[in-house]
Amino acid sequence: MLLKEYRICMPLTVEEYRVGQLYMISKHSHEQSDRGEGVEVVQNEPFEDPIHGQGQFTEKRVYLNSKLPSWARAVVPKIFYVTEKAWNYYPYTITEYTCSFLPKFSIHIETKYEDNKGCNDNIFDTELKEQEREVCFIDIAYDEIPERYYKESEDLRYFKSEKTSRGILQEGWRDTQDPIMCSYKLVTVKFEVWGLQTRVEQFVHKVVRDVLLLGHRQAFAWVDEWIDMTMDEVREFERTIQEATNQKIGMFPPSISISEMPLSSCALTSPASAPTTPMCTDAPEALSVPKDRPRKKSAPETLTLPDRASSGVPQGSVPSPLPDSNHVQSFTTLSSNPDLTEMDE
Questions:
Q1: Cα 178 from Cα 228, distance rounded (Å)
Q2: What does the pLDDT read at residue 71?
Q3: Buried-most residue among 11, 122, 138, 252 (CB within 10 A)?
Q4: Compositional bias (Polar residues) spans (predicted)?
Q5: CA neighbours within 13 Å on the CB side: how many for 300?
Q6: What pLDDT, in 10s, does the model give residues 208-228?
Q7: Is it the case that residue 316 has pLDDT exceeding 50?
Q8: H or E, element range at 83
Q9: Which residues contact 46 (CB under 8 A, 6 or more apart)?
């Protein structure tokens, strides 16, 4: 298990971002979806929890089959997806990602929002229970973003909001910006497979960081599109976009309802959470394979395992099959980066 805390500041208030995050996630998911690939919204309903009160439950499927390498497509189900379940008790949320094909892999993101510049070092004291974690600040204006994600209109070093007059964000903007809020995210990645755990968990955190950077950049870059929306209006926008996205990727479930009747807390037993990050399907720039790179003429048909005596595996034991890192990378696009499967190693 690898645990990190991310802190992402934005020139918004917590109350404003309640609308902004819903708008950003819906729009981004629609942009990144295509026929047979992308984010299908399975459920989006009010939900009431005995501890956290009334919130919103969402379940999504992120379809990734075409992003897998050819060898992986031969062994995984024809329709391969990652499941996102989220409970939004804003300003407290948790989102979980799982995959039935990789039962020992999961991502757990717990989020709290506060109107400050990321200075609360004790915000997760109850949840951490003495666990050590690395704290990572993400600067939405000046941290480097993969080139494939870059859009001039979303470059916050040059963007100024017409409706709020916020921006342009100068170096050190977090020290002078008013208003300012911080999204605190406690991210736990688990991949409990001997021999690959450290490498895979570190890689997934790199993907998660890129996703958080992109999503929060877009939330502010699109502020003039959503700042005047009410919660009712953004929920209607969310419903409309979700139905359009489902049709775009070729899924035609019954119309998604965002009803006024909250679900019973016993109907869903997962932890409280929320839609926290956009879903895209591109790998980090450093992991992309040049399109003009010549393909290998052949690939081995079998995998040669090391001798038991030299590998340290006790005689008579049967180790679990280990998925190749390419396989894991392709699936982690759920947290935001396409073509992860094209990484060569």
A1: 19
A2: 55
A3: 11
A4: 268-279, 326-339
A5: 4
A6: 999 999 999 999 999 999 999
A7: no
A8: strand 81-89
A9: 54, 55, 56, 57, 258, 259, 260, 261, 262, 263
